[in-house]
Amino acid sequence: MSEVNSSRVSLLIASGFAAYAVHEAWLKLSSTALGLAWLLFVSTLGAAGLACTLLVGRWRALGLLSASTALASAFLLVAADLAVSISAGRVLYSTDGMAFVHGAALEALSGRNPYTVSLEGYLWAFGLSLRHVTPTMDGGFVKELTYPSLSFLAFTPFLGAGVEDLKLAVLAFYAASLLAAYLLAPRRERLLSFTAAAAVLTLLSVNGVFDVVWVLLLILSLNARARGLRWLSWTLLGLSASYKQLAWAAVPLVALREARSEGLRSSLLAASTCLAAFLAVNLPFMLSGPLAWARGVLRSAWPGLAPMVPAGGGLVSLLYLGVPLPIAFLNGAAAATYIALLALHAVSAKPRWRLAWLTLPLAFILLPRSYPIYWLCWIPVAALDPGLGAAQPTEAKRPAAGRARWVAGLYA
Question: In total, how many domains does the chain have?
Answer without folding.
Answer: 1
